[in-house]
């Protein structure tokens, strides 16, 4: 079966690798899979305050200092997209354009990642609900989309209700998304795994390249440098006496005491770093996912925006104790973790998630 997916595959390592994972999983099920090259029209940026503009000036200074490394990262990401992702030759920029020049596919899948996050750009939002596809033309499937928030406004619910009702095969990535859909439409959407977790560590090892830094080391990958997270990193560094390696997706680093900062990691090296780490500190959903994939000891802290996404998965697999709100209560055994229960729960969730995909494509 020919399957086309619409998702984020530009933004960051997590978005890129979840797109790769879903494409790989679909192919392992015997389908052809192509990712729709979709980029919405550029929105006019609001005028910033002088304080914000000064902050941008300082950060741009760091960007200039790290220009070569940042450019190298983008080149490596571009090479990964060209060699590892099958993307439509045509680039689309609107829902109307996709409707008029619909890719040739038997089924369309939206997901995963935070593609359903509330946005003022209505046309962009409709694309990620497959509004450009007629149910008479092809199957419409939502696989593990995330709203990225715990609750949405009444106005947004009113906007998405008809879009969700028009997707016959519906699933979400978190319980909070499940609740939003239940409140909005009355429908029950099963919670399925993020695509990265559909692939085994053996699958990912075929993609990974060895890191440039010899293990053992503590790996740090964060999307928010809150005080509690910075304290966690310092605590783990002090207690383990291991060097700290930071993957920075920005041209600056806010993790004090880092021994190595990597600004230009390729997606393949990103995967290899998680596989090689002795311990991982992360508040990124996909940072946590790759910790689980490689059965690595990891620690995370509550995140003001992403906490529900991390907490839901940790609760589901029985590792809620790896999210700490009080660093002072961390005891010994920082480099140890018992995966016996979590592995069983992950295997069961993987079977159920693949079953959902298989059934949605067959119905």
Task: Characterise this structure.
The chain has 363 residues and is of the alpha/beta class. The chain is 43% helix and 12% strand. It has helices at 13-28, 50-65, 67-84, 95-100, 122-127, 154-165, 175-185, 201-205, 227-240, 267-276, 285-293, 307-317, 340-362, and strands at residues 2-6, 32-38, 87-92, 107-110, 139-142, 169-170, 218-221, 244-247, 260-262, 279-282, 298-299. The strands form 2 sheets. The protein has a 6-stranded parallel sheet with strand order 3-2-1-4-5-6. It has a 5-stranded parallel sheet with strand order 9-8-7-10-11, with helices on both faces. Helix 6 (154-165) crosses helix 7 (175-185).
Any key phrases for this structure?
363 residues; alpha/beta; six-stranded parallel sheet; 43% helix
């Amino acid at each position: 079966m020919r399957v086309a997916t619409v998702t984020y595959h530009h933004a960051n390592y997590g978005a890129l690798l979840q797109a790769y994972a879903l494409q790989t999983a679909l192919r392992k099920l015997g389908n052809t899979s192509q990712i729709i090259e979709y980029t919405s029209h550029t929105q006019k940026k609001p005028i910033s305050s002088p304080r914000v503009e000064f902050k941008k000036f300082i950060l741009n200074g760091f960007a200039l200092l790290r220009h070569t490394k940042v450019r190298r990262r983008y080149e490596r990401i571009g090479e990964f997209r060209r060699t590892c992702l099958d993307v439509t030759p045509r680039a689309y920029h609107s829902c109307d354009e996709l409707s008029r020049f619909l890719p040739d596919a038997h089924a369309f899948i939206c997901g995963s990642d935070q593609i359903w996050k509330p946005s003022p750009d209505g046309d962009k939002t409709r694309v990620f609900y497959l509004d450009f596809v007629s149910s008479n033309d092809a199957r419409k499937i939502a696989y593990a989309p995330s709203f990225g928030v715990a609750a949405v406004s009444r106005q947004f619910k009113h906007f998405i209700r008809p879009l969700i009702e028009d997707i016959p095969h519906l699933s979400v990535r978190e319980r909070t998304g499940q609740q939003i859909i239940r409140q909005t439409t009355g429908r029950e959407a099963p919670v399925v795994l993020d695509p990265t977790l559909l692939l085994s560590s053996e699958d990912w090892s075929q993609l990974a390249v060895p890191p440039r830094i010899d293990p053992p080391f503590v790996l740090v990958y964060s999307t928010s440098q809150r005080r509690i997270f910075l304290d966690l990193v310092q605590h783990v560094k002090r207690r383990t006496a291991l060097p700290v390696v930071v993957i920075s997706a920005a041209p600056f680093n806010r993790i004090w005491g880092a021994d190595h900062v990597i600004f230009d990691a390729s997606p393949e090296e990103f995967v290899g770093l998680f596989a090689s780490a002795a311990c991982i500190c992360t508040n990124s959903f996909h940072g946590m996912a790759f910790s689980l994939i490689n059965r690595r000891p990891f620690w995370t802290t509550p995140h003001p925006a992403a906490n529900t996404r991390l907490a839901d998965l940790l609760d589901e697999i029985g590792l809620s104790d790896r999210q700490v709100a009080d660093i002072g209560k961390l005891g010994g055994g920082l480099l140890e973790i018992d995966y016996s229960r979590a592995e069983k729960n992950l295997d069961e969730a993987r079977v159920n998630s693949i079953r959902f995909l298989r059934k949605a494509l067959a119905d």
